[in-house]
Amino acid sequence: MVECSPMGIHDREYARTGSSFGRGMGQKKPMTISTWLILFCVGIFVIDGFVNGLLSQWLYLSTDKAIWGVHYWRFIGFQFLHASPMHLIFNMIGIYFFGPLVEQYLGRKRFLAFYLLCGVFGAVLYLVLNLGGYIVLDVMNLDVNVPGLLFNDTRTPLVGASAGVFGILLAGAFLAPNVRVLVFFFLPMQLSTMAYFLVGMALFTVVFGGNNAGGEAAHLGGAAAGWFFIRNPRHLTGFFDFLGKADPTSKHFAWRDRPASQKEVDRILDKIHNKGLQSLSSKEKKQLHDASRDRREGS
Questions:
Q1: Residue 255 Cα distances to 82, 110, 121, 123, 291, angstroms
Q2: Which of 201, 223, 198 shows the shortest CA–CA distance to 210?
Q3: CA nearest neighbour of 203 among 125, 137, 144
Q4: Cβ-contact 126, 234 below 8 angstroms
Q5: Which of 38, 50, 181, 223 stands the most exposed, by the fewest C-beta atoms within 10 Å?
Q6: Cβ-count burial 85-112 (b if 16+ within 10 Å, e if not)
Q7: pTM score > 0.90 for this model?
Q8: For residue 122, with 0-12 CB atoms within 10 Å meaning exposed, 13-18 middle and 19 or more buried, which class applies?
Q9: Rounded distance, CA 79 to CA 140, Å?
Q10: Across-strand partners of 160?
Q11: Residue 279 near residue 271 (C-beta atoms within 8 A)
Q12: How far is it, in rounded angstroms, from Cα 57 to Cα 157?
């Protein structure tokens, strides 16, 4: 099994100052999406143990299932499966410490879209490289080792949340590059340094065919998506809207009557990031305040 496996990360200082996970117990505030993701992953792992892996069989991703079998739900489902308790724990640590930072910036709806899309892009890169290896080895019958391609069996399952976690890390490196973290629980490092170091390790593993190269390929896909979407959050807005009125998070419901367009809010947030809060006009401050108020009411 290919684990879309994580890294050991820990940041107690950030957890005290920036994380909203678990905050406000007893208060009338909705749980964060980061909290829900952790609960879903843990719940599915526990339930899957009781049903003898039935959920894993239905949700895992592989080239055979996703391409030959056209099981497209697996692009989402595999992100909530884990191969072992340690695999689960490390991924949940990543969401716990860094998810709230990105969620605060993007908002609940767009953060969920961001996280799932990072996982989907991780799956796509894995499938492309695995399909390339299959074509070279089995279709073209070439006995050559092409760096970067995955030559593992196309039936090999891919599971794990860490394509999404890698996306969160790259987003966090953009939003708070100087936050200090403890890599593998003991090595102090800036968040941006850690994120790009881990991406470099993943790239090295994929190119040279190291252990768990398939999982590392998914990490790279998730990291690339995270790098792009945190800089272009407007592309996240319509992720759920293709479901139309059947989806309660779509623009037909809670987000229907927002006073400022999402594109305008994105522009204001980008202006704050580049020039600081003092650069906003009175009108822009009011638009951001109104959008923030409506988001809280519609969450």
A1: 33, 12, 26, 30, 10
A2: 201
A3: 125
A4: no
A5: 50
A6: eebbebbbbbbbbbbbbbbbbbbbbbbb
A7: no
A8: buried
A9: 32
A10: none
A11: yes
A12: 9
Cα–Cα distance, 151 to 188 (Å, whole number): 36
Measuring CA to CA, which residue among 85, 91, 86, 80 is closest to residue 55? Answer: 80
* Partners of 2 in the β-ladder: 158
CA-to-CA distance for 269 and 288, rounded, in angstroms? 8
Nearest by Cα to 93 from 34, 9, 22: 9
- The whole-angstrom separation of Cα 195 and Cα 169 is 6
Burial of 184 (0-12, 13-18, 19+ CB in 10 A): exposed
Taken in order of first residue, the domains within the chain and their CATH numbers are 2-244 (1.20.1540.10), 257-298 (no CATH)
Q: Are 31 and 71 in contact (CB under 8 A)?
A: no
Q: Tell me, what amino acid is at 100?
A: P
Per the listing, tokens 């190269």 go with 213
Handedness of CA 285, 287, 292, 293 (dihedral sign): positive
The residues, ordered by sequence, that sit 6+ positions from 201 with a Cβ below 8 Å of its Cβ are 216
In this predicted model, what pLDDT tens digit does every residue of 14-31 receive, in sequence order?
A: 333 344 444 444 456 789
